[in-house]
Design goal:
The chain is of the alpha/beta class. 46% of the residues lie in helices and 16% in strands. The chain has helices at 19-36, 58-70, 74-82, 100-113, 125-129, 148-155, 160-172, 176-179, 183-194; strands at 8-13, 42-47, 86-91, 119-124, 139-144, 205-208. The chain has a six-stranded mixed sheet with strand order 2-3-4-1-5-6, with helices on both faces. Helix 2 crosses helix 3 (74-82). The longest helix is centred in the first third of the chain and has 18 residues, at 19-36. The protein is elongated.
């Protein structure tokens, strides 16, 4: 879907549904491409929550983030951004809180000067959908909650004691599926049973919005 929408994609979903996980998987794929083709831009994962502190231009913010988190000299970072050699993978649009609309406007302004630059952005759906101004991106997908069959299939992959306890719990309480309908909630339930963090495979159902 990222490729089909010319590398410009918005990812929406509820909390815990796997937006960040999918962004990181996309990052991994794009890094592999860039490693084998030096002319491609280098993808960089950043969280937009830090933008809200000072609310600079996106170009200035990107340069500062590259300097702070990746030890790229400021001048070099500015040149890379100017020449579209950086592919922003931006998480946490919803985490900009009361500055969310301003952040969207700043991203749109940045894209006016870098319209062909590939970019991926993720946000919680509810926080994004109420905004009066939307991101000018050609593609948008919504990550769906886990269905009951997906939950049961995941439960079947757990170690036997956890599997049997969860099966029994789901059998005795049909409403439990509604509480475990995101990877995060299911991971927390398994972690509570095992007394440690659970490792779950990536499971996401993606619905194309536009």
């Amino acid at each position: 879907l990222f490729d089909e929408h010319v590398g410009q994609l918005l990812i929406l979903g509820v909390a815990g549904v796997g937006k960040t996980t999918l962004l990181l998987k996309l990052l991994e794929t794009l890094l592999d491409r860039a490693e084998h083709e030096p002319r491609l831009p280098v993808p960089v994962f950043l969280n937009l929550s830090s933008w809200a502190a000072r609310r600079p231009s996106i170009q200035s913010w990107l340069a500062e983030e590259l300097r702070e988190h990746y030890d790229v000299p400021r001048k070099a970072a500015e040149e890379w951004i100017k020449d579209d050699q950086i592919l922003p993978i931006l998480d946490g649009l919803d985490e900009t809180d009361e500055h969310r609309l301003a952040c969207v406007e700043a991203i749109n302004s940045f894209r006016k000067d870098h319209g062909l630059l590939e970019i991926a952005i993720a946000s919680r759906a509810a926080e994004y959908e109420v905004l009066a101004t939307k991101l000018r991106l050609p593609g948008c997908v919504s990550i769906q909650r886990l269905g009951r069959e997906q939950i049961r299939d995941l439960v079947d992959t757990f170690e036997i004691s956890t599997r049997e306890r969860l099966r029994l719990a789901l059998l005795n309480d049909e409403g439990l599926c509604d509480l475990l309908d995101t990877p995060l909630m299911l991971k927390m339930a398994v972690g509570a049973m095992q007394g440690s963090a659970a490792q779950l495979p990536i499971v996401a159902s993606v619905k194309e919005v536009r």
